Amino acid sequence: MNFSQKMRSFVVLTFFACIAITAATEKESVCCKEVSSKKITLPITGFKVQAERPPCVKAVIFYTSKGAVCSHWREDWVLRKVTELRKLQAINKRLKMNTTTAPQMADSTYSSNSTLNY
């Protein structure tokens, strides 16, 4: 392999490394940096509890038909909605366990095909 081929290989590898690093950084930077106390009126299709890891703040991320909404985790309506969604998650988990033998995964994210209005 001559110098020109080595240099070309180095440039190509560097290019792909930069793309991979940029993509990883973008995924990590997607987080709630601010929260709203405003009650959500859109249908909620799921949620995720986000831990505080600066610059991300502690929040409940509700997924709606229009996208994600960052809500303050201490709001009464947020706590009630999370409790309601976790109950539905438990019911769905029990139903799936009764209808399938595949192992089920449990986490702090809830999502369903149906939507909920609050």
UniProtKB/TrEMBL annotation:
Record SUPFAM superfamilies: Interleukin 8-like chemokines
Can you list the GO cellular component terms from the UniProt entry?
A: extracellular space
Q: One GO MF term, please?
A: chemokine activity
Q: Name one GO biological process term.
A: immune response
**What Gene3D superfamilies does its record include?**
2.40.50.40
Q: Which residues form the signal peptide?
A: 1-24
| Statement: the UniProt record of this protein carries the keyword Oxidoreductase | no
Protein name from the UniProt record: Chemokine interleukin-8-like domain-containing protein
Annotated Chemokine interleukin-8-like domain ranges read 30-84
Which InterPro entries did the record assign? Chemokine_IL8-like_dom (IPR001811), Interleukin_8-like_sf (IPR036048)
Q: Which UniProt keywords apply?
A: Cytokine, Signal
**Keyword Signal on this protein?**
yes
